[in-house]
Amino acid sequence: MDLKLKDKVVLINGATGGLGRAVCFALKAEGAKIALSGRDPEKVAALATELDLGPDRLWTNIADVTVEEQVKAYVDGAIEHFGHIDIVLPNAGYEGKWEFNDQLTKENFDKVFSINVLGVMFMLKYGGAALAAQGSGSIVITSSIGGVVGSPGMAIYCASKHAVQGLMKSAARELGPKGVSVKSINPDGIYTPMLSRIGKNALGDSMTEEERLAALTAGTYDKRAATPEEVAYLILYYASPWAQHIYGSKVVIDGANGDGDTVRP
Ligand SMILES: NC(=O)c1ccc[n+]([C@@H]2O[C@H](COP(=O)([O-])OP(=O)(O)OC[C@H]3O[C@@H](n4cnc5c(N)ncnc54)[C@H](OP(=O)(O)O)[C@@H]3O)[C@@H](O)[C@H]2O)c1
After folding, report:
1. Domain 9-189+227-253: which topology?
2. Residue 157: which H helix or E strand, with range?
3. 259: pLDDT confidence band, cut at 50, 70 and 90?
4. Which of 15, 126, 146, 161 has a Cα at 20 to 30 A from 53?
């Protein structure tokens, strides 16, 4: 299937993480032009080397998603480099500390909300404005099953991803009439460094990594997490012209481990 992404200019942040990397390589395979952003210059440089694309297909940026001016500069810089942008993928995220209800801290709340909510808000603000000004484009936010259901030990992360759903739905209604389709993908576990950290936080060091992953995914029908590649291609389809008629929706990809919209009551 041709996703019609050839030569589309795509912004993705959190590009140096497990999912972001997979999205970058999928975009390369589809012939898109990539404007990737990360907060760590060394990781960004290493990813750019691996992607091995010329300046006509790859532009890199350093930004902390919690700093508004840096996010604005990212969007402005991508437009300056490529002439325009087509797709914006707010993807950076942080799982937060493992805290049960009686342990919740403002420190954890502030950090998680600034990355997961403010970070997405700034990308919607500046990326959305640029796309609306040209009258076309799409935005696919990497949210989480935590934006649909709650999870013991991860209340703040889940609250932040529920907030992301509110940002997504409101932006979808504002930007849709201006030609911009806004939606989210909502995965449960994906095999990335984040899932490894969650496993350690939830289950401790007495189990092996393999045992932790098996425990975390025991509730899925296929007894596994999603691969970064299968989530990446979901994002690419959802961001592509094939999904332009979809506004304000989410897609849950969870092996039926969550609930809410999936097959479990
Ligand atoms: N893995 C899962 O099981 C899972 C499930 C559902 C949803 N998600 C969502 O998927 C997205 C990608 O996560 P992942 O699984 O790829 O995790 P990951 O490997 O930990 O990657 C997270 C990315 O976010 C970046 N980031 C964190 N704070 C940042 C900040 N202040 N400014 C700029 N970048 C920042 C990280 O940068 P560094 O590389 O410099 O650390 C990294 O590139 C997140 O939104 C996450 O919530 C993940």
Report:
1. Rossmann fold (3.40.50)
2. helix 155-175
3. low
4. 126
